Amino acid sequence: MKLHLVTFGNRSTRAGRDFFANASALRDAALAGGVDHAHALSSDVYAGTSFEARNAELLREPRGAGYWVWKPWVIRRALDQIGPEDVLLYSDAGKRKITVPFPRPDRLAQLARLVPEGMIAGMQLYNAPNGDWTKGDAFSLMEGDEPEFHTAHQIQVGWSAWTQSPAAYALLDQWQRFNEDRRIVSDDENVLDLPNDPGFVEHRHDQSIYTLLVFKMNLPFLDFSRRPARRFVRQVRARDGVSLRKIWGGEAVLKALENHFAQQGESEPLKAVARSVVRRIRQ
């Protein structure tokens, strides 16, 4: 099994940030940490493509370099290029350059191969009910207006693990389809009858779409909210420069959990980790 990483960053933004520099730093850190192949991409990768032509209006939007419409396209393109036994990791470039060592995310990759769906959608956020961060039109147009999809907490889209599985490709294709619908992905006002939830704060664009799809397709994600994971989350958060919103933060929690279960006498500690923190909306 080879481990691949892909990240993306615009070379310049209206705010003067160079996200491509952050993406390049992440690529270099991943290679130094033992990832077999890592790529930092920019908008150059889709220049002149049908994707760019189809989404020209969205790609002009400053937020998320086009409301992050490029994200499933970038992941799918990279997934097509890996081997059948390999794992692809996606990670956001982030607003700041990586300043901590990048550990090879073997446990995250192994979990992606361990589950039957062949992917880990990422980590479920705390205190982020999906209805507070998803506008009504997304629920309507994606046929996701179910109570549990409003109350369950969002899945972050900052990092994830993928194999060339049917479930992975199905999610990416649906994510791309709905990301390209301006009514669903943008900050535009609702045009249909379903209002925003009473606690609505703002729409989270590609993350709202991704969360609804992960729930509707009953795909696996990581839930660190229960014991014993919660204890290790606190320990990881106390480290300088380490965040659970980054792939290395998630890997640090998985490593601590694996060590915990090994010390408890589990013969296959990673499978114990999977039983503890890999969750689906409908178990």
How do the helices and strands line up, and which of them pair or pack?
Elements: E1 3-8, H1 19-32, E2 37-41, H2 50-54, H3 56-59, H4 64-67, H5 71-80, E3 87-91, H6 106-114, E4 119-120, E5 124-129, H7 136-141, H8 147-151, E6 153-155, E7 159-162, H9 166-179, H10 182-185, H11 205-216, E8 221-222, H12 229-237, H13 247-263, H14 269-277, E9 278-279
Parallel strand pairs: 1-2, 1-3
Antiparallel strand pairs: 3-7, 4-7, 5-6, 8-9
Helix pairs in contact: 5-9, 9-11, 12-13, 13-14
Order of helices and strands: EHEHHHHEHEEHHEEHHHEHHHE
Strand ordering within the main sheet: 2-1-3-7-4
* Largest beta-sheet characterization: 5 strands, mixed
Mean pLDDT, rounded to whole units? Answer: 96
Compute the number of strand runs.
9
Q: What class, by secondary structure content?
A: alpha/beta
What sort of overall outline do the alpha carbons produce when their principal axes are compared? Answer: globular
Q: Count every helix, treating DSSP H or I runs of 4 or more residues as helices.
A: 14
Helical fraction equals 40-55%
Oligomer: single chain
What is the radius of gyration computed over CA atoms, rounded to a whole number of angstroms? 18 Å
**Residue share in β-strands:** 5-15%
The rounded distance between the terminal residues' Cα atoms is 29 Å
The tally of domains stands at 1
Low-pLDDT ranges: none
